[in-house]
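Annotated sample (chain length 327).
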Amino acid sequence: MRSALRRIAAMTVGLLLATTAAADGPQPRVVAVPDGATLYLDRAVQGTTVIRLAGIDVPGLGPAGDAEPLAAEARAALSEIAGDRHVQVATGRPGRDRYGRLVGQAYRADGLWLQGAMLTRGLARVRVWGDPPERIAEMLALESQARAHGRGLWSHPAYAVRTAETIHRHINSFQIVEGRVQRAAAVRGRVFLNYGADWRTDFTVAIAAADLSRFAEAGLDPLRLEGRRIRVRGWVRSWNGPLIDVTHPAAIEILEAPMTGPPSLLPLLQQQAPFAGDMDHAEKEGHGSGKIDRVERQRAGQEVPPEGVVEQHRAHPLEHVGGGQRP
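Output written by the structure step:
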C-alpha cells in the first residue's frame, strides 16, 4: 500500500500546474496567518492572496470563545513558521477550493515544507478528499510519528483515534477511525465496508463507483478488506448510522498483513454501476439485495443468473440520502 501511495505521489508531482515563483519578481510574503492552515500574502498568486495548505485538517478557531481545542496553538505555530516569510506554493488539481482559496503544498524560501512542519509538531492531521496532495505518503508517516509520541493534537482526547463503537458520538466532524471490517459488499456499483452486524446502525465506509478507478490504479481491491483491521479518515455523516465517504485509497491505511483473495472485482463493479458518481442516490448495503447476491456468488465462482432476474424479486427500493460532506 505504501509503495502504491509513493507511486501516486510521484505521478502527482508530474502533474503540478504551477508554483508561485515568478521570473519577474520576488516570491510573495506572508502578511497574516488567520488559522493553522491558511496564509494571507502581500500579492496575488494565480488571482488570489489567500493560500490553503493542502492535505491537512487543523482545529477551527470559530467565533469568539468557540474555538476547538489547540486551535490557537496551531495558528501560533504556523505564524512562527511562516509569518513575514517569503513562500512558494505548488498547486495540483484542483487548484482552488470552493471558497476561492489557492490550495497547494507550501514551502518557505529556505525550503522548509510548511505541511511537514505542522504535522511533525502534531498540530495538524492528514486529510484526503478527491485526489490526494503531493507527498501524501510522507504526510501520513509524519502524522504517525507525531501520534506515536503524543505531540500536539495527539495529547488531547478531542483528536483521539476513534473506534467503530464510539464514532456515533462524533457525527458531522472530521475523524480518524480504526476497526475491523466485518463485511465488504458491493451494491449497485458502490462498495460498502461494514464494521458491525447491523448495517442500519453500525459504522460504515462507502466508496462510490466513480472513485473505484483510483483504487484499481493503486492496486487496492476494497472488497478484500473484509476481515481486515484498517484505519480510515474523513468527514463523518449520519446515514443508517455513522458513515464516511472515501474517495481515494490514501484515506485507508491497512494495519495488518497484505491481503490475499480472489481476483479484483473493480472492473466488474465499474461496468455494472448505473449510479456511478451519484453520491446522493444509493443503497447502504442491505444484505438481501440482488446486487450483493450476484457479487458474492461471482466471488465464490458460482453460476450467476442474468442481470435483473434476482434483483427484480430482492432488490431494495432506493433511498434518498440527505446531507453532505465538508470539503
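Annotation: DSSP finds eight helices and 18 strands in the chain.
Annotation: Helices lie at 2-14, 71-82, 114-120, 136-148, 212-218, 266-271, 290-299, 311-314.
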